[in-house]
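Narrative summary of target 7.
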Amino acid sequence: MPASTAITLSLLEPAVAAVLAVLVVGERLPATGWTGIALVIACLAVLTTPTDGIDRGSRRASARRDGAPAPDRARMAER
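Modeled conformation, tokenized:
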């Protein structure tokens, strides 16, 4: 398992523990606790979303703004 995956899963552990405490033990979690769990899940979703298409598009757009020609896909495939 890659280190990045292990770290991402370890960040989710406190949220899972809190939800299990509510479901199994019957603990009560205040609204701020539920908000924190939602924020952790949302942030992890943003971190794990692939950004390949976004990066390539921004590079092409910035190259055109600088006056440089857009990269040729055939030439890039040769490398």
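The mean pLDDT is 79.
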